[in-house]
Specification:
The protein is an alpha/beta fold and 455 residues long. It is 21% helix and 25% strand. The chain contains 11 helices and 20 strands. Helix 3 crosses helix 7. The structure holds zinc ion.
Length: 455
């Protein structure tokens, strides 16, 4: 990924503010200009491939409003104002009602002292997808940028709007849907006077999405499945392609997104918007949370909103299509190849047994060589149930194989280090300094029992 020069990103912090920030920043700086190879794994039509290449080369100039010269203004969501250099959590009503339930959700605004882009981060548009809410919580940790360093509005350029739980009524009921039974991510940009979900979609569209420059929407696989952390984006849309590459996952799935999805509608209005997919609904995959959190930091660093350098994966797989591996039998599933596995054609990925016919079992084999980017987690299967989501691999196999662990599972670049929010100050307890009188039978280090255990 090339460093963007200052004229293109006029709000940018100077380079040296990044290198001083952490050891990681210094280490990454040297490899910064190496663009990681883009591997096309599927047969993307030639014209589409050219569009994607054009999009990733395009350098768009920044709006005048982001220039340092223009100064920073107050940030407004509806009537609520946030001053430059301030972090503020404000309530936002999903529905405009005078009486009764209005479903107020919290939005944290981190409003930098310098002008720059407005980036909106959304979690739990589907109420039971918890990787987003967790990642957006960790992002607000007091040490996310290193010991004692939170994202600091005082040194930040631009504005961050963090919405950990968009579909709060769904989250509280532990379901994907809005309480009227509809999928919010199929009803953008919403409709005035429409059904409940359309009204919510309209308010989010008007006050949150449309007023953003970039949107990152965090999702997980539907109930009963899990996803390898990856990005879905329209890679022929330059701002979205930029976000997708900057996020730093190994796998990028190209596509417009479903009709009525926030991503698709945002792109139609020329807003950069990507979807992160990782883990599964109703569960918390710690790797997915980490990839999502660090991916967001990568984007903020790439946009020069916060100090430091973004990290890039060793390679990127760009894919336009994928294959579902389905079970032809009903029963209980035993998964043999975890998500992230590189499997060969005809390899057994799972078996199905049926307690009613206990002496028989059937194998589910892969139709081709590829990377498993999704896998069933729910053991109940019937004939036709999708159990694996396969990205066929036709190119770049040697590069990919160099990044597999001993079980042939892809090592994701985002999870090689311990997550910063789990690093704690370790207290050393010196047992020899205990001067309390010891209980009988435990009187001294000469105790033969103690020596025996010391091996
Ligand atoms: Zn989702």
């Amino acid at each position: 990924m090339p460093l963007i020069s200052d004229p293109l990103l006029p709000w940018a912090l100077s380079d040296d503010s990044g290198t001083k920030d952490s050891k990681k920043g210094v280490k990454r700086a040297s490899s910064k200009r190496r663009r990681s190879p883009l591997k096309v794994v599927n047969q993307i039509p030639k014209r589409r491939r050219r569009e994607i290449e054009d999009a990733s080369e395009e350098k768009s100039s920044s709006p005048e409003a982001w220039s340092r010269k223009s100064g920073q203004k107050n940030h407004k969501i509806e009537r609520r104002t946030t001053k430059p250099g301030v972090v503020r959590t404000i309530p936002f009503d999903l529905i405009d009602t005078e009486i009764g339930e209005s479903w107020s959700i919290p939005i944290t605004v981190v409003h930098g002292t310098r002008p720059g882009p407005t980036v909106t981060l959304l979690g739990a548009v589907h109420g039971n997808e918890l990787v987003g809410p967790q990642a957006l919580t960790f992002l607000q940790s007091s040490q996310i940028l290193g010991e004692g360093k939170a994202i600091d509005a005082e040194v930040m350029a631009g504005t961050l709007r963090i919405v950990p739980i968009v579909n709060l009524p769904g989250y509280r009921r532990r379901t994907r849907y809005i309480p009227d039974g509809r999928d919010l991510n199929r009803f953008f940009p919403g409709r005035d006077g429409g059904n409940t979900t359309q009204r919510i979609a309209l308010r989010l569209w008007e006050h949150i999405a449309k007023t953003s420059d970039f949107i990152i929407d965090l999702h997980s696989a539907a109930s009963g499945r899990t996803n390898l952390p990856h990005i879905r984006a329209n890679l022929a849309h330059p701002p979205s392609s930029m976000l997708a590459r900057a996020f730093g996952t190994e796998v990028l799935l190209d596509g417009l997104g479903p009709r009525g999805s926030l991503r698709r509608v945002s792109n139609e209005h020329d807003l950069g918007c990507i979807t992160f997919e990782g883990g599964g609904a109703d569960s918390l995959d710690s790797d997915a949370v980490q990839v999502a959190t660090y991916g967001i930091l990568n984007v903020l660093r790439y946009l020069r909103m916060i100090p430091g350098y973004p990290s890039s994966p060793r390679f990127r797989l760009l894919a336009s299509g994928s294959i579902w591996i389905r079970s032809d039998h009903g029963g209980l599933l035993d998964v043999l190849a975890p998500v992230g596995s590189v499997i060969e054609a005809d390899e057994v990925v799972a078996t199905v047994t049926d307690p009613e016919h206990a002496r028989e079992s059937v194998e589910i084999r892969s139709p081709g060589r590829g990377l498993l980017i999704g896998m069933a987690t729910h053991p109940f299967v019937t004939s036709g149930t999708p159990i694996g989501h396969l990205l066929p691999l036709k190119r770049g196999l040697s590069t990919i194989k160099s990044r597999l662990d001993e079980d042939d599972v892809l090592m994701l670049s985002g999870v090689l280090e311990d997550p910063i929010w789990r690093e704690e100050d370790t207290e050393d307890i010196d047992l020899e300094s205990l001067d309390e009188p010891s209980p009988d039978g435990w009187t001294s280090v000469d105790d033969p029992m103690l020596e025996e255990e010391d091996d």
